[in-house]
Amino acid sequence: MSDTSMVSMKRVQIIVKGEDLHLVEHLLVNAKVSGFTIVPNVSGRGHHGVHEGHLLFNDMHTLDILFTIVPEDRLDPILAGLGTLFERHSGVVFVSDVWVTRKHYFETYANSSR
Length: 114
Description:
Blueprint: E1 7-17, H1 21-30, E2 37-39, E3 44-46, E4 49-51, E5 63-70, H2 75-85, E6 91-100, H3 104-107
Antiparallel strand pairs: 1-5, 1-6, 2-5, 3-4
Helix pairs in contact: 1-2
């Protein structure tokens, strides 16, 4: 039997420089999120003007987006860690409500060797 009931969770989207990507990955792993997705080389316009999504010299000079879905009780530690990170590094975080099926996919820590 499949689990098709909808459950409220939080979607956390984080935009950072490629050189800081490892810091956010480490933070999410330590927060024991069930997983996350990385979208590399994003383009956009913000406080510092237009940012092209192509590689200039290497993957450190890009902007990347990481996103994860978490139960609300895991949100505060993630936001606290990002707050500390953003005191010294540029970046932005967005949090929104989302409804998911298969609740257990987002509550169970995915043990990673990375």
